[in-house]
Design brief:
Length: 102
């Protein structure tokens, strides 16, 4: 019984340690992919960020704005016809990292 309990404890511990590795993280690369994804924000139309901002055109200064989250969601809800992203979501953070990298 003691070995069984120890095995369960080790499995739980390893599960907690592996969780951050298995979880998705925001990155510039992920942001670039999302920027070119027509399904961003659950959009059902073929429009994507790169249709208006080819290669990030016009967003060079956007990364310095305090309301970048608001601007991103405005585009997602407007031209993309999608649902806004959560302020602290991986997707939002990845998009902000990508835009700031331009």
């Amino acid at each position: 019984m003691k070995k069984f309990s120890m095995a369960i404890l080790m499995a739980i511990t390893l599960g907690f340690l592996a969780a951050p590795v298995m979880g998705e993280e925001a990155s510039v690369e992920k942001g670039a992919k999302l920027f070119d994804d027509p399904a961003l924000g659950g959009s059902a139309n073929p429009t994507k960020c790169t249709d208006c901002h080819i290669g990030g055109e016009g967003l060079e200064k956007a990364g310095n704005r305090e309301n970048l989250t608001e601007m991103i969601n405005m585009c997602i809800q407007g031209p993309l016809k999608g649902q806004k992203l959560g302020e602290d979501s991986v997707e939002m953070n990845a998009l902000k990292l990508y835009i700031k990298s331009l």
